[in-house]
Amino acid sequence: MASSTFFFFYCYFLLVLAAAASPENYLHLRFFQHERTMGTPNATVVLSVNADNSGLATGFGNIVAYDNALRETTDLRAPIIGHSQGLGIGADRSGASGFTVFTMVFTGGKYNGSSLDIQGIFIAQPLLETVSERAIVGGTGRFRGARGYLHSKEILLTPQTLTGQLDAYIKF
């Protein structure tokens, strides 16, 4: 009898572990990041360190700081629900990718007062439609203790703006 009870609890434990690891337990949120590109009026990205003298955000050793608007749609007239604030570092000598660390700070909408912390590699070439995956390493407010991952891709480029789609998969 004891061995069958043990077996039952062991199987139950394995099922709980499998359910905890399944993608269905992630909260999926989609946001759009609106950047006003470097060198344009009211730019939301600035080159803070120009180590390789290229003037490019992805130059090796270069550092950019950014404070991009977050919205729930691609429409630039939609209400701003927060900002993506952080740093990008040209850490790939080829310039094809860089390391980013940023916080999505929510100042409006359902997640007002909360934040998500993200870090990882951003693939810069080719720019449009390339998906980068980065880690969600924490959060505050409604996202306290969050873990997960973020898929991002740049979907629209104009002479003055760059729009990115951010898909967050969050586990608490």
Could you please describe the fold and organization of this structure?
With 172 residues, this protein is mainly beta. 12% of the residues lie in helices and 48% in strands. The chain contains 1 helix and 9 strands, in the order αβββββββββ. The protein has one helix at 2-21; strands at residues 27-36, 45-49, 63-71, 82-89, 97-106, 115-123, 132-140, 147-157, 161-171. An 8-stranded antiparallel barrel has the order 1-3-4-5-6-7-8-9. The radius of gyration is 20 Å and the shape is globular. It starts with a helix and ends with a strand. Mean pLDDT is 88; it is low at 5-21.
Percent of residues in β-strands: over 45%
Helix/strand structural class:
mainly beta
> Major beta sheet, specifics?
8 strands, antiparallel, barrel
How helical, in percent, are the residues? 10-25%
Mean pLDDT: 88
Order of helices and strands: HEEEEEEEEE
- The unreliable regions are 5-21
Q: How would you summarize what this structure contains?
A:
The chain has 172 residues and is mainly beta. It contains 1 helix and 9 strands. Strands 1-3-4-5-6-7-8-9 form an 8-stranded antiparallel β-barrel.
